[in-house]
Amino acid sequence: MIYEGQNLTVGLLDNGIAELVFDAAGSVNKFDRQTIDELDKATQAIASDPDVKGVVVRSVKSAFIVGADITEFTAMFEQPEEEILEWVARTSQVFDRFEDLAVPTIAAINGFALGGGCEMALACDLRVADTTAAIGLPEVKLGLMPGFGGTVRLPRLIGSDNALEWMTTGKDRKGQQALDEGAIDALVAPEKLVDAALSMVNDAIAGRLDWLARRTTKKAPLKLNSNEAMMSFSTAQAFVAAKAGKHYPAPHMMVETVKNAAGLDRDGALALENQGFVKLAKTDAAKAQVGIFLADQLVKGKGKKLSKSATKTVTTNAVLGAGIMGGGISYQSAVKGLPVIMKDINQKALDLGLSEAAKILNKGMQLGKVDADKMASTLNSITPTLEYSAIKDVDMVIEAVVENPKVKSSVLKETEQHVGNETILCSNTSTISINQLAESLERPELFCGMHFFNPVHRMPLVEIIRGEKTSDDTIATVVATTLKMGKTPIVVNDCPGFLVNRVLFPYFAGFSKLVLDGADFTAVDKVMEKQFGWPMGPAYLLDVVGMDTADHAASVMADGIPERMQKIANDPVTLLFKNDRLGKKNGKGFYNFSKDKRGKPTKDAAEEAYALIKPQQSDEQTFTSEEIIARLMIPMANEAIRCLEEGIVASAEEADMALIYGLGFPPFRGGIFRYIETMGLANFVELADKYAHLGPIYQITDGVRKMAADGKSYFA
């Protein structure tokens, strides 16, 4: 044994080939401080051993190396820039020293080689991967750029155009694509990987592969003349500007770094990469996106842990109420291999539900994501029925009928009489109290909320709502089933609107008040989309939700939380609803929706909406972007804080992920609590106090005021 550490070892084979083997104590290999230190020591041990003729780098786990240990980033990025720069420069030099070994080095890649794992492979002279491999540099998803030489070695290996597309999108490459683009040198079956790597290193040792020429290319300036460089980087800049916009600095920094380093050798280019990494590490976007990653890990970990505690396994679902929502839920169950019976009292509704599933599948076929076999198996897994007798043996029922407490209670009560005594009942309600619905049931312990978001096949979140009498095993089983359906479950406690809609309606109320105070709804949408970063501004979102749905839900929220959410007099939403301007569903709301001559959808601010709203408005006035953002986001933030303080949601991380997955909260802001923390709790309190005169939704809790005074954090 040449070297033995906790996470990697180096052994010497009889023919002089050293095997550098990654085998961390956990389930995956990753580059934490310990592993990087061990890699440096292993490199020194290899360099000082005269018997070593070549090196094979491999993993004994199902993945090569999944990247850096992101849990170390949060504390590290709080350090001064000089200290972060010193760390990243020192770390990247570890990879340099490995690259500079006097013998050929081969990476044998299996499974994921991402981030630092990809950079380890790039530091080798040659790369062979098996057919399970997925190789990439996803740092952009964390608001960062590669820091261990990725921006230097990859462009010199596969060309700047390909490399920038890899890095600015963060998408990994399967083995064949990586081979086609030149990132790896061979692709083999998994069982042949080690033999192929050993054969390759022997060829390099024997001079049959010119490994030194490959290494020289990686360490030299990019081979681009001035015209090629201008075309390459201007194209990349335009692509990034169009795709990422101004809120995500990482892809812009990558293009600038590769561009400025094009004429430099490895050491000069790495110095620029180090500097760019540090600048990004200090941005709010990186802090937010790293926070999202860690919050997502927390949410997924809780879901898996809960699902393992379930004592039941759901093998057949039923969905009550076909239509668009029921069809979407049925599709989601069937496409993930969980057969579903779709029941309604109306054949036309069943036909609509089936056509909804078929429409989603057809779109998938057009995009090349679904083949004919998948479409057939999915549709064959949905059984439409008009009879209760068809669902008597199912394990779980998801009720998705009209959002009316009397109708839902009646349907749930009737359903309970037609299913087994162990069958779990769920209600896909967006606002109605689970405790209220449970009152009609004989077995409330087997009942909970299961709130899907529309469109079901696209939205990752499912809110699992625990009622007062819901059993732990019911929650665990529903969480397990949600995971099986390919969705992310977040468990919340019962209250009007639960978590997502409870924080959404104060935001809508803030919008309505702002419009009544004289704001132009199109100006508000523009600020909230272009500057704050929402995918849709509030007026457009209300049009998509539907004015009838929004007005009804607002009434439910007003009944449930009258002290803060009483309906607003002359609310523009209600005005539009009463005038049959329902939004996108009937082509007229705040905006008019139609199609141009080419059949492309259009959206135009509706003069009719202005005419309805104007008599109720104060004098028209212009609000600054800061005022618009504050008047909409303070109510949302306040309600999120209340949900956390009341125990509706268990953690700030889960609240953040719920809003990102359920509402499309701007990822570069990291979620509602990360947004508050980035602003600073003391600054948030000061800002909210400035608007407190506007009403209860602007008035903060004593809890957040005390946290601000004590200098505490929601992520401590």
From TrEMBL:
It catalyses: a (3S)-3-hydroxyacyl-CoA + NAD(+) = a 3-oxoacyl-CoA + NADH + H(+). Pathway: Lipid metabolism; fatty acid beta-oxidation. PROSITE patterns: 3HCDH, ENOYL_COA_HYDRATASE. InterPro entries: 3-OHacyl-CoA_DH_CS (IPR006180), 3-OHacyl-CoA_DH_NAD-bd (IPR006176), 3HC_DH_C (IPR006108), 6-PGluconate_DH-like_C_sf (IPR008927), ClpP/crotonase-like_dom_sf (IPR029045), Enoyl-CoA_hyd/isom_CS (IPR018376), Enoyl-CoA_hydra/iso (IPR001753), FA_oxidation_alpha_subunit (IPR050136). It comes from the Bacteria. The keyword NAD applies. Residues 318-495 form the 3-hydroxyacyl-CoA dehydrogenase NAD binding domain. Its EC number is 4.2.1.17. Keywords: Fatty acid metabolism, Isomerase, Lipid degradation, Lipid metabolism, Lyase, Multifunctional enzyme, NAD, Oxidoreductase. It holds the Pfam family 3HCDH_N. Residues 497-592, 628-692 form the 3-hydroxyacyl-CoA dehydrogenase C-terminal domain. NCBIfam families: FadB, PRK11730.1. In the N-terminal section; belongs to the enoyl-CoA hydratase/isomerase family. In the central section; belongs to the 3-hydroxyacyl-CoA dehydrogenase family. This is enoyl-CoA hydratase. It comes from Alteromonas gilva.
